[in-house]
Each structure stands twice: as structure tokens, then as C-alpha cells.
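Q&A log
Question type: sequence-to-structure
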Amino acid sequence: MTIAEQVALLSEGTISVLPREELIKKIERKGKLTIKLGVDPTAPDLHLGHAVVLSKLRQFQDFGHHIIFLLGTFTTRIGDPTGKSKTRPTLSDEQIENNAKTYFEQVQKILDPQKLTIRYNSEWMDILSSKDFVTLCSKVTLAQMITREDFAKRLKENQPIALHEILYPLIQGYDSVELKADVEIGGTDQTFNLLMGRYLQEQYNQEPQVVITLPLLEGLDGVQKMSKSLNNYIGLSERAENAYGKILSISDELMWRYYNVLLYMSENEIVIHKEAIEHGNEHPLVLKKQLAYKIVERFWSQQEATDAQIQFETLFQKRDFSQAQEIVLPLKDYTIVALIKNIEEALSLSQIRRLISEGAVSVNEKKKNDPFEIISLSDNSLDTILRIGKHRIFRIKR
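Response status: OK
Response body:
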């Protein structure tokens, strides 16, 4: 493959490559580039939104480039202000360390660990002298910082901005100086921070990095970007059948977005499928099942995708609940809220109450509207069947 063909493939699915000509020249001159991705371990789970960027890194790996997966063990203490209307709460060092441990295991679903370097930005930030830090701050003006969209918006709305938040893009940019990155990859919401790395490298007399941005993946609600804090995510560490079911729960319109961003289906192909549905030649559920299968196959395994599809068809089309996930609980009596919380710990109490009020919860095929109704689990061999939403069914035993 020629360099031009390689860059064309690497550019597929991206929003921007800034500047594209420099990427071609870098590969021509160096052959093997250093590609950087920075992730703050703010939570223990990576999700399909992260998979968009990780998949692009895998392409770079396959072309022989050097990948640095940078864990923001220092920047996590600050909290990335991107898209936030208020200052984020800080995490303890213990929380950050525990979250970071899970990340390497999860990225191996997509990246080749033998061709991957893990770094931590606390390596250099914890030992940076106050003199060097002031020198770093002198490279950028306050006017540059407050042009960032979310800062400008908060200022306009008279929302406070903590000084350490303004320093976040500066520190992320300095990571690129320390790593001498040739390319940095991130979501479109990271554009300002990525360009800051390019700018600071020039200030430190380094060759500036190429910035590659990728689309943000909307969460299950189809509105906000996929996020653990919003509980609209599909975690890479989830059971494959849970991921399969969650994908089937998305709207028909959001399905096309997932096809495009996660499976690289072209806009022309999407138009063809939409027209086929309009003329009755294809059914949205069939296409959604294909989407769920292909995503699970890609980020879990072919066997798990097959098993998840068989389980779905058994549960929802043949209504054989013996194939539902089995949960064993110790007590006999639970309120509906407590029952769900014991099974879906990631759901907040307000989210559980909302599901109940929307009629999305049933026990033994009877909808439940009272969050405080007592459910008594059977002492005999009969299971209690709990359904949450359209595609989550559990067999509960004592």
C-alpha cells in the first residue's frame, strides 16, 4: 500500500486531519510515527464511545506505528472541563489508581497489547518544578484559553470557572511535548486541547503534531454523547448479551449513526437501506439485529455474538425465559426499587423511579407502577421474571 493509500484509509471515519499534508510528509520522512491517545480514568469502564477512537488507533497499529495510550493520572485530579457547565468533582488518588487498572485490560479488546506503550502523565507532572510550570504557563495567554467554547459559554452565563480548569488544556498539551507525539487522536470535543498540544510543541521547538478528530458517539438516549455518568453507555466490559440487548433498544434513527460511526457504513449505503425500508423490502428490526451482531462480534467475539443473538431470539421471540440471565438474591422481600438496584447497580434511584413511572418495569409479565410495592421471591423452584425496558430480562432466585 502506498503512503497516500495508507493515509486515505487512516482518514476514513474521521472528522478532520489537521493538516493532512503533514501526516503524509511525516510518514514519508519517519516511516513509523508516535501516535498519542490520552484518557482520564474518571470511571472504571470504557465504552463504545471510546471504541471509536481505539479502533482508529488499531489501524495505526496495523500499519506499524507506535501507539502511546496515555492515562491522565494527573489530569484526572483536575477534571476535564470539556462540555461541563460546572466544575467537576475531583477523585482521590486511590479511585484514580483503581480505575486505571481496569483500562489496560479493556483496551486489549481492540488494541494489540504487544504493540502498545502505557504511560501516565503524573510521571512528569508530579516532578515538574514550580519554575518550569510557570514557564509553561507563560507560553499561553488567558485570551487564548477563554476562546474555548465551553469556557466562553460559562463566562457568558456567569458560571464560575476554577483556575485549575483553565490549566487543563495546557497540561494536556504539555503531555504531547513530553511524549514528542507525531499525531494525537481524540473526539471532536477535544479539538481545542489537541490543538493546544500542537501549539505548545512549536513553543518548545518541536515538530508540531498532526491532530485527528473523530465523531462523538451518542448514547442510548440518542441525545447526549455516550457517558457513564449519564448511564447511557454500553461498556466494553459488559456481558455480550447485555450489549446486544442495549443496541436493540436504541431508536431506528440512532441505528444509522451506530452503523456509520462503529461499522463505517457509508452514507450511500444508509440511503439504500432507508429506501428499502420505506418500500417494505427490509425491516428495521432485522437491520438492528444485524447491527447488534456485528458490533458484538467486533468488540467481543463471534461466538459471543452468536450466543447473544440466540438468547435474544429465545427470550423475546420464543418467550422462553429459561435463557434469561440468572440472578441469586439472599432476601425474600424487596421493594421494586431495591430489587432493580440490586441487579442494575449502575442505575441511580431517580433513573429507576423514572423507568417504573414510564411503565418500563414488569414482574412476571405484570407492569409495576408503584416503586415501593413489595415483591416476594418464591421459596420453590419457580423463578421471578424481572423485565427492565424492552430488552433486559432476569430470572431471580433465592
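Response note: The first helix runs from residue 3 to 11.
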